[in-house]
Every structure is written in structure tokens, then in C-alpha cells.
Amino acid sequence: MSGYRFRPFTRADLPLAAGWLRTPEVMRWWGDPAQQIALLGEDLDEPLMRQWIVEHAGRAFAYLQAYPAKAWPQPHLARLPDAAEVIDAFIGEPAMLARGHGSALLRTMAEQLLAEGAAAVAIDPARDNHRARRACVRAGFIGEQIVETEAGPAVLMVFSPADKTAPGQRPT
């Protein structure tokens, strides 16, 4: 979907992300804002962790990160191919929720990562985060496998472009 810009996340963006991490919807799924902003800051020094601020129509509204699945071994990601990428994202501007932006930015990034050579693109929303799971399905991610993560139960989903959508899944 046109109109989205993924610009690199920098130290100058930490206050913006900190504000977003304090919103009720983001706190519910990402946890303690102070702990999360510290992790985002640390990840700026980690070359394998790529981070972006997502903009639409010139307005910053979301955070997205991508990393190689094998870079930080997690049992629930062990079966992914060696060159698989994992993405995490949140919409920080409440006014941008429930408008299709989540699925659009996830699809755009998944397609970009595949074009860059990723063998697969995965995401693992919390089991009870139904809004995120619906956005992932609309973006083209499939999978219903419940997995245990450090943050609790999640659903491991893998991007499947529209031309490879599994039976019963609606392409977007």
C-alpha cells in the first residue's frame, strides 16, 4: 500500500517511542514502558536488529523492528528456516488504530524483507491480542500454532503472499 514510509529509528526517536509505549493499548501488550524503551535504546547498538518509525501521510504513528530468527535463539522460532526474519510492531497513535494501517504496514514490511532475501517472515502476537492477530491475517500471515514465549502464550504466524495463501485464508 502506498503512502507508508519506513524511516530508520534513531536515538532522537526514543522520546516519541516512550510516549507511545505509555499508551494503554501498547502497554497492555508490550509491558513496562521504561523497560521497553531501555531495550529499544540498547537495540540501536545491535546491528542485527533493524528498527523503523512508520509514517503515513507524513505522520509518524508506529514502530517496527525486524531481526534474524536465529540471532536470539527462542524455542518457538527454532523450526523457522535459517534466513527467516521475525518482525514486531505496534501502532503508537491511538487515532490510527482500527483503520487498516497495522495490516498494511505488516504486509509492506514482510514483502520488503522477502525481496531482500529472507527465507520466511514470521510474527508472534500474544494469543489474546485478537486485534493484532486479525491484522496479521489481513496482512497475509497464516498459522494458528500456540507457542510459549518469555512474554507468555503467543501465536506463531508466517507470511504467505496472496498467490500462496493457504486454503480457507482470504488474500488481501
Give the N-to-C terminal Cα separation. 11 Å
Q: Give me the CATH superfamily.
A: Gcn5-related N-acetyltransferase (GNAT)
In the CATH hierarchy, what is the architecture at level 2? 3-Layer(aba) Sandwich
Q: Mind describing the biggest β-sheet?
A: 7 strands, mixed
Share in β-strands: 25-35%
Extract low-pLDDT stretches. 164-172
Order of helices and strands: EHHHEEEHEHEE
Structural class, by secondary structure, is alpha+beta
SSE layout:
Layout: E1 4-8, H1 14-21, H2 24-30, H3 33-43, E2 50-56, E3 59-68, E4 85-91, H4 101-115, E5 121-123, H5 130-139, E6 141-149, E7 152-159
Parallel strand pairs: 4-5
Antiparallel strand pairs: 1-2, 2-3, 3-4, 5-7, 6-7
Short description:
This protein has 172 residues and is α+β, with helices and mostly antiparallel strands.
Describe the structure.
The structure is a single chain. The protein has 172 residues and is an alpha+beta fold. The protein has a single domain, classed as Gcn5-related N-acetyltransferase (GNAT) (Aminopeptidase). Helices cover 30% and strands 28% of the residues. It is built from five helices and seven strands. The chain has helices spanning 14-21, 24-30, 33-43, 101-115, 130-139, and strands spanning 4-8, 50-56, 59-68, 85-91, 121-123, 141-149, 152-159. A seven-stranded mixed sheet has the order 1-2-3-4-5-7-6, with helices on one face. Helix 1 (14-21) packs antiparallel against helix 3 and helix 4 (101-115) packs across helix 5.
Which key phrases capture this entry?
alpha+beta; globular; 30% helix; 5 helices; seven-stranded mixed β-sheet; 172 residues
